[in-house]
Design brief:
Strand order of the largest sheet: 1-3-2-4-5
Distance between the termini: 85 Å
CATH class of the largest domain: Alpha Beta
Helix content: 25-40%
Largest sheet: 5 strands, parallel
CATH topology of the largest domain: Rossmann fold
Strand content: 5-15%
CATH superfamily of the largest domain: Creatininase
CATH architecture of the largest domain: 3-Layer(aba) Sandwich
Length: about 375
């Protein structure tokens, strides 16, 4: 049997310790037999990266060969910078996904049931959950952001299946601080924005007209704002929206203040909040014996780190100024009980957002129709 290392379930020190000659394999879609991958590599031990969940020609949502190539090349930019020497992409399509330093091989995929069947109808808001694969201190896995936002999005669809549907959660986004700690990916802001615009465009072509771009990773947020603005200009009949992370709005922020055990600075990254979520969702991936609390962020009245950031200043200083472990916050104060509580609240908060998106689009469509009717009526000559 192949010896498969699940890259996204590692912590960043474990990635730092991996031999740089270890093959890293990026699957485009799922359903590849591990034995077939090992045979193609010519060895049994390799690290499997999180799969790209859609985008190829026969997938749930194709984005075109060039866009897929750009996204894949962006994914591999991080491992290349960290010195990994053997990078592979496996796919079953006709696209050419090789790039400098990256080799491809094609394998047949087993028949798999799509993770989601997007109907692309105006009856539902299309949720586009965006996670990331990045360091989360000594104690949490690289897939923390992806796990959390996937659970929230799935919870929304389960709660209001006639009002919302979702794409599979995207596991690669933007990190502008990836050099400080091992294991963090960065597809690049421009590539990420273009990917989102292409995805929205493909859904618009199929009949969808309302979208919610949901982020589980702070580094994605400003680029999702740009994507929403570009989409609103390009596809003027739609309503696309995003929000700052999760558990941070009209329901989440009060719930954090009510139940949190840490003070300001205790919820930033690999913190009390994210650790609580993981203790509830995937306790098997939490290494709580390794947790390090770091709350000595260089704070000033208008710039500080906490989950809901109220400071007026926006900046991006080096992370290593403020953290040695990669954590911002007090992960040791996390509890699975609070993780379950905050997840329920986060889902309800997003359900409320979905209903508001529906209301916005319904009222806007009605106003446009009324204006069009008034224009037509005014153009009819009086008899």
């Amino acid at each position: 049997m192949p010896d498969i290392i699940r890259y996204d379930e590692l912590t960043w020190p474990e990635v730092a310790d991996l031999p740089r000659s270890l093959p890293l394999v990026l699957p485009i879609g799922g359903g590849y037999a591990p034995e077939a991958i090992a045979a193609a590599l010519g060895e049994e031990r390799f690290a499997l990266l999180p799969a790209v969940p859609y985008g190829w020609e026969d997938s749930l949502l194709p984005v075109g060969a060039e866009m897929l190539w750009r996204y894949v090349a962006g994914i591999f930019s991080g491992p290349q910078e960290e010195g990994f020497e053997r990078l592979f992409v496996v796919h079953a399509g006709c696209e050419d996904l090789e790039s400098p330093g990256v080799r491809q091989f094609r394998l047949d995929r087993a028949e798999t049931t799509p993770d989601a069947l997007v109907m692309a109808t105006s009856e539902r808001v299309v949720l586009i959950p965006c996670g990331h694969t990045e360091q989360h201190g000594y104690h949490l896995p690289l897939n923390t952001d992806t796990l959390i936002i996937d659970a929230i999005a799935r919870g929304v669809v389960q709660a209001v299946p006639q009002r919302a549907e979702m794409l599979p959660t995207l596991p690669y986004g933007v990190s502008t601080h990836r050099r400080a700690f091992a294991g963090t990916f960065n597809v690049g802001g421009r590539v990420f924005e273009d990917w989102m615009l292409t995805v929205i465009g493909a859904l618009v072509a199929r009949g969808a007209d309302r979208f919610y771009l949901m982020s589980g990773h702070g580094g994605n947020c400003s680029f999702l704002v740009n994507a929403v603005k570009y989409a609103g200009e390009r596809y003027r009949g739609i309503f696309a929206a995003t929000a700052w992370l999760h558990t941070a709005g009209h329901l989440g922020a009060p719930a954090l203040e009510r139940y949190r055990r840490s003070g300001r600075g205790g919820m930033g990254h690999a913190c009390e909040l994210e650790t609580s979520y993981l203790l509830h969702l995937r306790p098997d991936l939490c290494r709580m014996e390794r947790v390090v609390d770091e709350t000595d962020f260089i704070s000033t009245p208008n710039y500080y780190m906490d989950w809901v950031e109220d400071g007026a200043l926006i900046a991006n200083p080096p992370w290593e100024d403020d953290t040695t472990s990669g954590s911002y916050g007090a992960g040791s104060l996390a509890t699975a009980e609070n993780g379950a509580r905050w997840l329920e609240i986060a889902i309800q908060e997003k359900v409320d957002h979905v209903e508001e998106i529906h209301e916005q689009q319904r009222r806007r469509l009605a106003r446009r129709a009324a204006k069009k009717y008034a224009t037509i009526e005014a153009a009819i000559p009086l008899r």
